[in-house]
Amino acid sequence: MGFLLTPTIQSFSIASSGILFLILLACTFFTSTEAYDALDPHGNITIKWDIMSWTPDGYVAVVTMHNFQQYRHIAAPGWSMGWTWAKKEVIWSMTGGQTTEQGDCSKFKGNIPHCCKKDPTVVDLMPGTPYNQQVANCCKGGVLSSWVQDPVNSVASFQVSVGRGGTTNKTVKVPKNFTLKAPGPGYTCGRAKIVRPSLFIQADKRRTTQALMTWNVTCTYSQFLAQKTPTCCVSLSSFYNDTIVPCPTCACGCQTKSSQRGSCVEADSPHIQSVVPTKNNFAPLVQCTRHMCPIRIHWHVKLNYKEYWRVKVTITNFNYRMNYSDWNMVVQHPNFDNLTQSFSFNYKPLTPYGDINDTGMLWGVKFYNDLLMQAGHVGNVQSELLFRKDTSTFTFDKGWAFPRRIYFNGDNCVMPPPDAYPWLPNTGSRKTVPLLALIMAFLVTLVFYAYA
Q: Which pTM value belongs to this model?
């Protein structure tokens, strides 16, 4: 019996190992759905609701949105914020913003509220709004810059006069179910929390006032919630190898029969202009490519000097529906602590891991290349980066010169597989085995041991 049992246990052990291997392998092909971003661990959008004065049936509040994300901004057509009232509140008036719908105000006679909906949605006013309808930090069309790129324009505000609500700190009820769209999904907002009242320093800096009551709402971003497929990919090349590593096939989706109905457009199509939609339609319409991504970033190792090495970065827009204004790119590479010069991009180091400086943020120069035009002959921007060599770590071997991770406008881009990176010619030809062949060989081995 012992002799018959041993092969069974051994086969079970091998099969279990095989199942564990396949599970671990499958996990590498899926992106985490959590909102945590390793390169911006504390990034969020905080909504602060400050009650500034009481009224006979409610209060006047200033609502401020702070974008504390280092490199993720909100582009046109801008943000929209929503919530659900805890009681039967209405909005009598607004300054610096407006609700998208008024709702049913038929119960009111004479003075009609600005909004009577139980779940109002607020949007920013457009630039050029009359001054008597503005408040500080309003009227930008909902566009919100990232914290690093433009901290002054990373704040948005509006004022709201609320009726049929509480008139003291003890009777006010905090709204529920806050939502934030930018302009689509992606953000998840937590519960409103009552915090210490905000302080305000007067213009002469000699007097400080404070809000009567304050609550905060924190909203975090998840790329998976924003879109089911990636939005950008990375291709690679180098001076020491003729191989150009393209973006992975189907990195942002595949061309299917739906492409005949307008999901992608051939670059030489004579009807490109006719398929470009109205300005309010921001669904991607990409050029038909192997990768099907709206954005491709190409990293080319260009030159090698005695004490320096040089990289050329090109960002290409394949989206016929989008001009990317105030775009930014985040690159993780161990040599960023020795970046000497960025020739036509702005640069700022990011330190998500404390003192380790291996992450850099790059963005366009204002009025020069901060607008990445839609797909076409001018749909790209480029720059060169000059790095000083650290003799203790520098090498062109084993793909060290290529980035570990790249983000575009806050979204993680799809990188080529590491075994496809250009290699040094003196290392000889690499003998690679396709991943599928390895899996099939492993399964055949399992079957052989199980029934031997």
A: 0.81
| Tokens 């309010």 found at | 280
Rounded Cα distance, 149 and 147, in Å: 6
Extract the runs of DSSP E, i.e. beta strands, from 68-175.
80-84, 90-95, 97-99, 121-124, 155-163
Domain architecture of the chain: domains with CATH: 45-225 (2.60.40.290), 230-435 (2.60.40.290)
Tokens of 196: 């210490």
CA 103 → CA 114, 237, 434, distances in Å? 9, 57, 60
Structure confidence at residue 424 (pLDDT): 85
**What are 421's two structure tokens?**
């990176």
Please enumerate, as own/partner, the contacts of 265-271 that have beta carbons within 8 Å and a separation of 24 or more.
Answer: 265/320, 267/375
**Residue type at 149 in one-letter notation:** Q
pLDDT digits (tens, 9 = 90+) for 227-261: 888 999 999 999 999 999 999 999 999 887 654 45
pLDDT tens sequence across 417-437: 999 999 888 644 444 444 554
